[in-house]
From TrEMBL, chain A:
Primary localization: membrane
Protein name: Heme exporter protein C
A Pfam family it matches: Cytochrom_C_asm
Subcellular location: Cell inner membrane; Membrane
UniProtKB/TrEMBL annotation, chain B:
GO cellular component: plasma membrane
Topology, Extracellular side: 35-158
Species the sequence originates in: Thalassobaculum fulvum
GO MF, one annotated term: heme binding
Residue ranges that the UniProt entry lists as topological domain Cytoplasmic: 1-13
GO BP annotations listed: cytochrome complex assembly; protein-heme linkage
Similarity annotation: Belongs to the CcmE/CycJ family.
Keywords: Cell membrane, Cytochrome c-type biogenesis, Heme, Iron, Membrane, Metal-binding, Signal-anchor, Transmembrane, Transmembrane helix
Designated name of the protein: Cytochrome c-type biogenesis protein CcmE
Listed transmembrane segments: none
Record bears the keyword Metal-binding: yes
A Pfam family recorded for this sequence: CcmE
Amino acid sequence: MHRFANPTRFLRLANALLPWLGVAAVGLLGYGLWLGLLNSPADYQQGETVRIMYVHVPAAWVALAGYSTLALASAAFLVWKHPLADLAARAASPVGAGFTAIALVTGALWGQPMWGTWWVWDARLTSVLVLFFLYLGHMALTNAFDDPERGGKAGAVLALVGVVNLPIIKFSVDWWNTLHQPASVLRMGGSTIDPAMLTPLFVMAGGYFAVFAVALLLRIRALYAERRLRQLRLSLPDA
Amino acid sequence: MSRRPYRSRKNRRLALVIGGLAFLGIAVALVLTAFQDSVVFFFSPTDLAAKEIGPDRRVRVGGLVEEGSVTRGPGDGEIRFLVTDGNTTLPIRYVGVLPDLFREGQGVVAQGRLAGGTFEADEVLAKHDENYMPPEVADALKKQGHWEPGKPMPGSGS
């Protein structure tokens, strides 16, 4: 990991990866939507509405993976003080917030026809809403200081405190009674989704993760350029 | 110049982060355990019977709609059904529109008050289970008697 803490080496790798990730994102999302919307069976209970799963579930997965990225980057920044880790954390939170918002909105659109309600305050829905606010809080806190070093530190502490929410989200449906159904894919005893539906779900998940990676790398690159510009401006003698 | 103090500072920060997370995790686990009753979205009929909740408290009860228990009327839009968790069965009365997914043998969550022995619901939500499959597969599984709706599929995903 320390090898890639060198910004030049990291950017070289990111620039080499970005076009491939972009192609993968477009290809997987296109193929996944075609499979999910047109070439997969309707559900025995939910009918055609089950297709919302293909846009909802991967968004929720990326929302959780995005927070894990944010937390790991924050821990690396606090422990090893790599400036690049700070940039990665700052890059991750708006992207993660975006995917969390997609999960919340598509979940509401799915809940209305199936459960009969847009929103309930059950443990799963509430903990994902908390995740969304943690992302927003991280964005606000990191930019609330004039000194980016202090902002990054404060944000990193907040991000690590929020890590307790991740197991709560994942296991909320097992620990407590919720309206949200229990896990279907990552559960003991294997998936309870038919293979004909699991394939489009995994293809879409691949596409979502590729979009996340593209957005994350682009943002790290932009934040790095911004930081360099700031340093150059500070090094200039006052005109 | 020795590298030692530099390294030990890092190790101390790492220990601080890990230790802090461990303590935070324990604290949150204790709080969530203490507030168990507020975190659950609904009670099962068995929980409800054990809790002796008065008619003035609005609660949610959830379980499976018992097969063959749904009757309509006499009032307009009035519906009565039994909700069971396998041990206890609770009669529910509801006036209103039911969600699409409401059917016998499937999960529901009703919100309302316990009046006498009947639960007077003012809202009924459908709870769907974790199984997703095409109708043909569901029929085939049911025909072979391998699986009962509302339960996780046996040997799925293998």
